[in-house]
Amino acid sequence: MSSLSLAVRDSSTMLRRNLLHARRYPSMTLNLLLTPIMLLLLFVYIFGDTMSAGIGGGGADRSEYLKYLVPGLLLMTIGSTTIGTAVSVSMDMTEGIIARFRTMAIHRGSILIGHVIGSVLQAIASVILVGAVGVAIGFRSTDATALDWLAAFGLLALFALALTWIAVGMGMVSPSPEAASNNAMPLIFLPLISSTFVPIDAMPGWFQPIAEYQPFTPTIETVRGLLLGTDIGNNWWISITWCLALTALGYRWSQATFNRDPK
Question: Distance between CA 245 and CA 37 in Å, rounded?
Answer without folding.
Answer: 29
